[in-house]
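subagent[fold] <- orchestrator: predict structure for attached chain, return tokens only, no commentary.
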Amino acid sequence: MHNREADHNGPETMRACVLCDVAYMEVRDVAQPQPGPRDLLVRVASVGLCGTDIHIFAGHANYNTDANGLPIPFNLEPQILGHEISGEVVETGRDVRDLQTGDRVVIDQGLNCNSTARAEACEYCRTGDSHQCEFYREHGITGLQGGLADFISVPAVNGVRIQSSLGAEAAMTEPLGCIIHSSGLVSRARSRYAINASDREQRVRTALICGAGPAGLLFTQYLREALGYEGLLLVSEPNPRKRQLAERFGADTIDPTTCDVVEAVRELSGGRGVEYLIEATGSGRVMAVIPGLIRKQATVLLYGHGHAGTDMSLLNNVLFKEPVLVASVGASGGFEVDGRPAVYARALSLIESGRIDVASIITHRYTELEQVPQALAGDWRAADYVKGIVTL
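subagent[fold] -> orchestrator:
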């Protein structure tokens, strides 16, 4: 393994893209992480750029907090973002037996009771909700070093081996894992309507996905290809390129800039409205029209984050319809026999088998850390942008 050194006797260093202040990043030499006995050192191969990275970069969110829950300014504690990560193992700790140098892996960026080997797991980890771990921390989000660097060190159980020739697209495992986790929460909810329910009266006949960004497009495919949903699947999206992808993946689309979405949904659903709505935009304007879109006692999955500037009194009309509101974050869902995250293993398998097409969603590929600031600052606003991946 080749590493640069800061000086002849100093610690090993690596290059990283460091968020030093709101909307300001620098590529710097920083200390290279040193793996512990249960850890891996991974040379980063690809990193997906997520909406969360964009929000943190712009100063709209900061999840690195002090003991009182207050955000720590970036100029006091700079951050290395990037939580959708794949790479190659270059070093293993002395207690690691099931991975070795040269193995290619995708990484679960979250640290929970299982991955940190706590003597007694918290109630959330014991019940398969590891993303809500009482002691949870997250590489690239809560202040721990993320993937926008040459190397990253994580517990070995957080590395899921890639079994195929899958390339940079492996970084899409984490976002697909979030979709799988969300869908699992919906299936466990006590809802009047369910996907593929045996009782026709309780079956979802019409599902609507608001937004065809990466999440919306993964939801579209997951409903069709993994869950086998055969009912009417609608996607509302203003961007023509994203609508085209949604149609390719099996949805009928609505352009909200050319019609009244509520009227369109009513017409397409035969006046019923939708039994299952996935809010994947984070737009307050979408929240305002949900009451007109859903059937009474529908299921509403609140997946998108943001909704800035929204008058929350609009929820009065949502609540009047008695929907089941499901909130989701992350990609928890229990562990495999070897301790690895089950949802990540499932997501990687779906991508490797070709059942979920992630390559078509990736529209922008970056090959240098120096390109990341512009990607987060403005590239994502381009009409042809769907998803960006950094390959190193």
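orchestrator: received. Logging for downstream: The two ends are 16 Å apart (CA to CA). The CA atoms of residues 99 and 156 lie 7 Å apart.
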